[in-house]
Amino acid sequence: MVSDKKSKTATIWPPEKLKILDICQEIHIYAEEIYLCLSALHHENRAISRIFGELAVDKCNLSDAFKMASKLKGSGLSEICVSTGTATELLDKMKTLFQWIKKNPVSVIHALRFAIRMEESLEKMHILNVVTFRYEQERELMTANLKKSGSNLHLMTEEYMNLTLFEQNSDDPF
Predict the structure, then answer these.
(1) For a tag site, which of 12, 33, 43, 104 has the least CB within 10 Å?
(2) What local confidence, expressed as pLDDT, does residue 163 receive?
(3) Domain 12-165 is in which class?
(4) Rounded to the nearest 5 degrees, what angle is found at the Cα of 87, between the Cα atoms of 108 and 147?
(5) Cα separation values, 147 from 68, 78, 141, Å
(6) Roughly how many angstroms between the first and final C-alpha of the chain, as a whole number?
């Protein structure tokens, strides 16, 4: 359906499409909680804990972007590119992972490896991959706080590589 207000054409999104935005918000709330758990679990390693803390903030910002898009009823969006089924499947996975992490404390190396894989899965659900925006102004509004996520993944990957390299060479007599 299309509505014409003040000579601007706006899409009126059906509730089932808008539900996808709510599901994506929930996905990122769970990701934030997972990173907060990992940050607390590895608080003694300040660099690692900080990375997990920054990733938690990143997921909070993404959650807020989806919340804003949902509250605006999809105004400014030209397309929602993810299906309800795909979003629901990832949400179910995030719920399971959150429960598992709470019950199974993992080593720093396993936490980093786990987080790298989780980030790869979550990349599909980044707001820039879930929706397309009608105007550059709306895209800028929704993505203003999301500039840092790529650098966090790089830092996490670098820490993981350093730790696993050290672990593999720890038996060296040199």
Answers:
(1) 104
(2) 60
(3) mainly alpha
(4) 60
(5) 17, 22, 12
(6) 70
pLDDT confidence of residue 52: 92
Structure tokens at 82: 């993810």
Between CA 146 and CA 126 the distance in angstroms is 10
**Among 12-26, 106-120, 132-146, where is mean pLDDT lowest?**
132-146
Identify the CA nearest to 34 among candidates 88, 90, 96, 87.
96
- Helix (H) or strand (E) holding 78, with range, is strand 77-80
| 8 DSSP β-pair partners | 5
In the chain, domain spans:
12-165
Global confidence as pTM: 0.77
Max CA separation in the chain (angstroms)? 75
Cβ neighbours of 99 (radius 10 Å): 11
Helix axis angle for 108-122 and 46-71, nearest 10°, is 20
